[in-house]
Amino acid sequence: MKLKIDSRGLRGELKVPGDKSISHRSIMFGAIAHGTTNVRDILRGEDVISTMNAFRAMGVEIEDDGELIKIHGTGFEGLKQPKQKLDMGNSGTSTRLISGILAGLPFESTLFGDDSLSKRPMDRIAQPLRMMGANITGQTSRDLPPLVIKGGKLSAIDYQLPVASAQVKSSLIFAALQTPKGEVSKIVEKEKTRSHTEEMLIQFGGEIAVSGQTILVPGGQFLIACDVTVPGDISSAAFWLVAALIVPNSEIVLKNVGINETRTGILDVISAMGAELEFLEQDDVAKSATIRVRTSQLKGCEISGRLIPRLIDELPIIALLATQAQGQTVIRDAEELKVKETDRIAVVADSLSAMGADIQPTADGMVIQGETPLHAATVNTLGDHRIGMMAAIASLLVSSGEMILERAEAINTSYPSFFDDLERLDGNS
Ligand code: S3P
Fold first, then answer.
1. What CATH number should be reported for the domain holding residue 94?
2. Are 88 and 75 in contact (CB under 8 A)?
3. One domain, residues 324 and 284
4. Which residue in 92, 112, 119, 260 has the most C-beta neighbors within 10 A?
5. For residue 51, which of 75, 79, 20 has the smallest C-alpha distance?
6. 312, 318, 333, 341: residue to mutate for ligand 1 pocket, most atoms within 8 A of CB
7. In terms of domains, do 42 and 184 share one?
8. Enolpyruvate transferase domain location, by residue (predicted)?
């Protein structure tokens, strides 16, 4: 598709769509709990729909009246063998978390996905789930999808995660819940990652003890349905935060932004870079806030260490931000970017370089020189939603020529209304 160029400024107010991580988990917990779970403000992106369809295929009734999602939970024991292979689409989160549920169920199922998902390593979940007793077969030594899972009786695990991954942690928590009563699994994180599974488990009446990076999960748990309101996705808000900062004459108010502190690394980084950011309202129970952001003069910085898991999905758009800041920005310790929907170190560097940016990819990140004018180019998302949205925001800085985005439909995986929201904000100046 042809992207809009040469913005005169983005202005207005926006309610950010529901958080993808929390939306997935609300369906999963709703299914494995007993009773009816009502979910408000869920993200209806393709990834979350893959999760919903997987549970429908396992016999869970899920109603959607356009506003509320009602999940008629069956408990683990009520989930049935799906009649077909489960299509996970583009969604790594669906595949890894559902594998933890399937690992304890007494039937065989197959998970498959699109060309991007078929390249994503599942050994990170398959290995520990095998240690717990599941029988899992993937393709090649990395256990790429399709994955065949023969679930059954599981036993507790004592496991140190070799990667900082909320998906692996969550998969193991779902499996640990199905171990016998009296057994306790110990999961130790490499770095603290997003805490949505732990928090939602408590919301559904479950038991979990978290102390620093150590998590204890008792087996044989019985979960009870509850009501969930999904806050807005800070990973989607990130595109507007950056757009407002770098497109001259912009001011955007973002309502309903989720501010769980395991996700707010981007706010810390842009504040340190000099962003004009204001919290207008904050709801500490819902963990959401209304944030105003204006075009600001920014300086480059270093992003590394513990900060990385707190902003891993925002690094593509932060890379674009860095091309407009003063001086150099260095991103380190982010090798996980290589195993996202695309190799985001290579694809971010290639697509922004095609637009004239000065970015050096490194083994675990990138080095970006600032204050670089961008020009029109053709960018291919390669099926990666966040590359598509990054390119669409970058195009607003291009003053002439034709900016083409190939495979733009990838954006629907996490933000189906992205271009409508862009149109609204851009039309207000
Ligand atoms: C997610 C965890 C992260 C993130 C992904 C969503 C989740 O992946 O990149 O978009 O919902 O748990 P990793 O666990 O692989 O880091």
1. 3.65.10.10
2. no
3. yes
4. 92
5. 20
6. 312
7. yes
8. 9-422
Tell which of 213, 229, 245 closes a domain: 229
Which residues, in sequence order, are CB contacts of 416 under 8 Å at separation 6+?
17, 44, 45, 46
Q: Which atom of ligand 1 is nearest to the CA of 97?
A: 12
What is the Å distance from ligand 1's center to 189 Cα? 14
**Ligand 1 midpoint to CA 194 (Å):** 8
Residue 273: pLDDT above 70? yes
- Angle at alpha carbon of residue 163, lines to 157 and 167, rounded to 5°: 70
Q: Are residues 395 and 318 in the same domain?
A: yes
CA of 90 from ligand 1 middle (Å) equals: 13
Taking CB atoms and a 6 Å cutoff, what residues make up the pocket around ligand 1?
21, 93, 165-167, 170, 194, 312-313, 336
Q: What is the set of active-site residues?
A: 313
In which domain, by residue range, is 64 found? 20-229
- Which residue type occupies 401? G
Distance CA 223, CA 373 (A): 54
Do residue 281 and residue 347 come from a single domain?
yes
